[in-house]
């Protein structure tokens, strides 16, 4: 029988590197009823039956899977004990479980960053052989960009559930009403000018929604991509610290001014989920964020702006504000249920699951961006006509090995695939949030972030 556990609070994000030195101070969150017993894992599925403990991020695509999970249980005989957490809290929980070898979960959703770093730490099972031997899964159908961010030496250590880049979403009906035009390839200055015009024309509407919630995977996803656009960054290829460079300062100052002047109310508490709600309920005119958001924006069951949204490329300045990301299934080496874990993953990331979502929930809710064949399904093509081509172009233009205006020491567009980044990105996100709240200047926030960066860079110089 499926059991669902949810948490609504947010912890302060701790990076993997930080966890390694602070585990003695860490304690579990919530009451025992919030999740399975530590170290328990699921029970061996063998030739059918048993159970799996699964930890998932609380994004819309995972919520859809939660509703369809009983179908898998009935087909496989495997019970799913599902825990769903907000993004920041999920990262804490998974990092602690995997880094300590607690074995609490059999399958966990991880991002592209964790896929790179945790594979290097030998925390995850190599899934390449299982993927190749499962003919129904069709591993060759996975998009190269998504395989690239989840592989080591061409072997997959995590399987994408959905993939994304970033683009600009805007209310084309509002733009048409007021004679405004969104360029196909807007600059950040274009976004600012359009926001000012919307503020005057629609004073009750938020001109632009931008993540402000501190976290390396929240506000720093947007800020990190903007650093690339303005010619800034975290480090260059020689590990020179670029965090307080003029280019980085310009990018962060532009972000702070844009959100202060034209962003959502309470921006420092608004992450992806909050901006999705604001935009899909018709309260914002523009939103720069993940391409995967379009699935929910165009879903009649969750959005009031279906058919009213236009899509443009990610804003740019010196370069493009792109990113590549995947939410994926990883299997910690501590699990005793590898075969059952693969059976679940093969179902959740398989072609038949996409077909099931399309037929039962709607084709805009398919967890796309991971399979080439998805874009050949006629029903999907019709339903996603408004954004499909823009999404594909965004993914193809965002190369994690070539973001920004100069070479970097490690892959990543909006993040840097080094163990120290989770902690550095979290601290820098907190500093940027403080600047956004008016608690300190951008210069002071970046100077503090620079010092955190020096600590990280010294380990590599």
TrEMBL record:
Protein name according to UniProt: Sorbitol/mannitol transport system substrate-binding protein
Region listing for Disordered, in residue ranges: 27-52
Stretches with biased composition (Low complexity): 27-38
One Pfam family linked to the record: SBP_bac_1
Keyword annotations of the record: Signal
Keyword Membrane: no
Residues annotated as signal peptide: 1-29
Start-end of Gly residues biased regions: 39-51
Phylogenetic placement of the source organism: Bacteria, Bacillati, Actinomycetota, Actinomycetes, Propionibacteriales
């Amino acid at each position: 029988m499926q059991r669902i556990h949810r948490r609504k609070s947010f912890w302060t994000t701790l990076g993997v590197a930080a966890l390694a030195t602070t585990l003695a101070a860490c304690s579990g969150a919530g009451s025992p009823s919030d999740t399975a017993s530590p170290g328990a894992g699921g029970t061996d599925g063998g030739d059918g039956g048993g159970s799996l403990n699964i930890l998932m991020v609380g994004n819309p695509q995972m919520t859809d899977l939660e509703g369809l999970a009983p179908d898998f249980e009935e087909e496989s005989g495997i019970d799913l004990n599902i825990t769903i957490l907000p993004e920041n809290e999920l990262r804490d929980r998974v990092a602690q479980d995997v880094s300590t070898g607690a074995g609490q979960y059999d399958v966990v959703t991880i991002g592209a960053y964790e896929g790179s770093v945790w594979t290097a730490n030998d925390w995850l099972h190599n899934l390449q052989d299982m993927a190749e031997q499962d003919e129904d899964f069709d591993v060759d159908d996975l998009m190269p960009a998504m395989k690239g961010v989840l592989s080591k030496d061409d072997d997959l250590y995590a399987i994408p559930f959905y993939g994304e880049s970033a683009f600009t979403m805007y209310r084309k009906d509002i733009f048409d009403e007021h004679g405004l035009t969104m360029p196909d390839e807007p600059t950040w200055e274009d976004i600012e000018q359009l926001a000012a015009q919307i503020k005057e024309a629609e004073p009750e509407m938020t001109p632009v929604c931008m993540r402000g919630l501190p976290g390396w995977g929240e506000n720093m996803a947007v800020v990190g991509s903007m650093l690339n656009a303005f010619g800034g960054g975290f480090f260059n290829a020689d590990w020179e610290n670029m965090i307080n460079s003029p280019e980085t300062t310009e990018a962060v100052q532009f972000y702070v001014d844009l959100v202060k002047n034209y962003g959502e109310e309470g921006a420092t508490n608004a992450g992806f989920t909050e901006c999705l709600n604001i935009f899909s309920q018709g309260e914002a005119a523009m939103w720069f964020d993940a391409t995967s958001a379009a699935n929910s924006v165009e879903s009649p069951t969750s959005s009031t702006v279906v058919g009213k949204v236009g899509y443009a490329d990610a804003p740019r300045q010196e370069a493009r504000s792109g990113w590549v990301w995947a939410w994926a299934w990883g299997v910690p080496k501590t699990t005793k249920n590898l075969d059952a874990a693969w059976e679940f993953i093969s179902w959740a990331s398989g072609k038949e699951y996409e077909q099931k979502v399309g037929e039962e929930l709607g084709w805009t809710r398919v967890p796309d961006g991971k399979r080439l064949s998805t874009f050949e399904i006629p029903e999907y093509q019709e339903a996603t006509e408004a954004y499909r081509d823009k999404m594909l172009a965004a993914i193809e233009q965002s190369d994690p090995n070539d973001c920004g205006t100069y070479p970097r020491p490690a892959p990543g567009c909006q993040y840097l695939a080094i163990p120290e980044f989770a902690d550095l990105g979290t601290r820098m996100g907190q500093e940027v949030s403080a600047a956004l709240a008016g608690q300190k200047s951008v210069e002071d926030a970046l100077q503090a972030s620079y010092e955190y960066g020096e600590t990280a860079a010294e380990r590599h110089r």
